Amino acid sequence: MILCLAVTVGFRNAKHISNAAGLAVITVMLVTTCLMSLVIVLCWHRNVFLAICFIFFFGSIEALYFSASLIKFLDGAWVPVALSFIFLVIMYVWHYGTLKKYEFDVQNKVSINWLLTLGPDLGIVRVRGIGLVHTELISGIPALFSHFVTTLPAFHEVLIFLCIKSVPVPHVRPEERFLVGRIGPKEYRIYRCIARYGYQDIHKDDVEFEKDLVFSIAEFIRSERGEQGIENSSEDGERMTVVGTASTNLEGTRMCEANDHEPCEMDDTFELREIRTPKMTKKRVRFLVPESPRIDTGAREELQELMKAREAGMAFISGHCYVRAKSGSSLMRRVVINLGYEFLRRNSRGPTYAWSVPHASTLEVGMIYHV
């Protein structure tokens, strides 16, 4: 609205405004034609000759209109070019700052060996419940977690590093939603989960997402020996298993949540005995596993610990980063990072996650990124 009013008040001439609108429209049409030729070759897998004919026929007509609009460049057509340049600078500043922030995460991620050294001897204690650490990394331990443990030497008895990735496809099938792997030895109870969403997928609410997330960990524990699922390897050699949502896995592990006095509407022959909880009314988690093949004692104990941790509650640990240009940076870089990117970050909408994080269970860890 402000831009429209500024252009109208500034020009006070319908001819100049029409020149500006004409250049903007014909430029969009010309760019669309060029991109459509790429779609013909890369997406539709048609002959290159067909794409050349398409761009030659439509592009030549639009190029004539484009050249005619450029003649009126000084008579108002310069406005969309100037606005495009301004938005280009804004987008470049955001992309540059985001890229440097991600590079900082990659370069400062903690090795698995550092995590293996943590234990009671170093003053690290494990508290009840599930700790869900959100990270952009698909491998390694984020520097955010090491900063958290160094400041507060404690983390949950079950720890999940969650990475939510948007993939360049419309939809990800529910049976291929999660990639689950293990970090460190089994007794550490630390997992990595990568949730993949297409750009047209509808994200579930927080309750359904938590249920699917816990189910994916339980199914991974049951089928860790490779009876089911497709295995992939991450950059650090972690083995990742493809696990679907609870509604898509009919033959594997199933999950039921009910109150103490509510029956679980599932076949009792498949039930893994639940851990007794206090008499207070609260949700009780039950995992039901297929009777054949039988799971070993270690997997059964791990599932029981996961049940107890889920009943104890889930805490969401996220980062609140402050990006600053490191000492010795040029004036332009300090302006771009300290002023431009920081202003955009503080005044932009936060990332859309697959769940609505409850504020009562959220812990934000502040950290300064020197890029």
From TrEMBL:
Q: Which UniProt keywords apply?
A: Ion transport, Membrane, Potassium, Potassium transport, Transmembrane, Transmembrane helix, Transport
Looking at the Swiss-Prot or TrEMBL record, what is one Pfam family this protein matches? K_trans_C
Which residue ranges does the record assign to the K+ potassium transporter C-terminal domain?
Answer: 129-370
Name the membrane topology term: Multi-pass membrane protein
The record lists the membrane-crossing segments as 24-44, 49-71, 77-94
Species source reads Actinidia chinensis var. chinensis (Chinese soft-hair kiwi)
Instruction: Report what the protein is called.
Output: Potassium transporter like
The family annotation for this protein states: Belongs to the HAK/KUP transporter (TC 2.A.72.3) family.
Q: Name one GO molecular function term.
A: potassium ion transmembrane transporter activity
Q: Where in the cell is it found?
A: Cell membrane
